[in-house]
Amino acid sequence: MGGSDPRSGEAWGLHSAMLWVKAFHIVFVASWFAGLFYLPRIFVNLAMVPEDSAAEHARLLLMARKLLRFMTLLAVPALALGLWLWLYYGIGLGPGNGWMHAKLALVLLVMGYHHACSVILKKFEARTMGRGHVWFRWFNEMPVLMLVAVVILVVVKPF
């Protein structure tokens, strides 16, 4: 009866705040990746649109533009919260945290993939995209592999 509640005090408040930041980071990352999974699928469909189907091409471009805008809005808080966890709470800092360096390299790769999607969309808009639907089917698999690698690094921390 004489013990104090370990969940009381400043330390618990800081820990609780970190858990909220982590939770929202995960939500925004998962939502961002949902867009990264779906946008290249729209590219597959765009690559398959016949030249004479202007309405279908325009509809798919509209979907792709809206999705790119939305997933960019999701990426910003995902990255900001991740930076907050890394720098403010020190998650992954110090010796024995090679997994964080590998994860950050993958995050840069994901950001590059996101940017590549925006470049590809501009090429579809200009009707200068020279790649076919099979290439985009393979391109569509890259975010899955990157997500698997990031989750393994964060959960298993192999380095």
Supply database-style keywords:
mainly alpha; 77% helix; elongated
In words, what does this structure look like?
- By secondary structure, the chain is mainly alpha-helical.
- The protein has one domain (about 10-155).
- The protein is about 75% helix and about 0% strand.
- It contains five helices and no strands.
- It is elongated.
- The model has no long low-confidence stretch (mean pLDDT about 90).
What's the short story on this structure?
The protein is mainly alpha-helical.
How many separate structural domains? 1
Order of helices and strands: HHHHH
Q: Which percent range fits the helix content?
A: over 70%
Q: Note the beta-strand portion.
A: under 5%
Taken from the alpha-carbon principal axes, the silhouette is elongated
What separation lies between the terminal Cα atoms? 43 Å
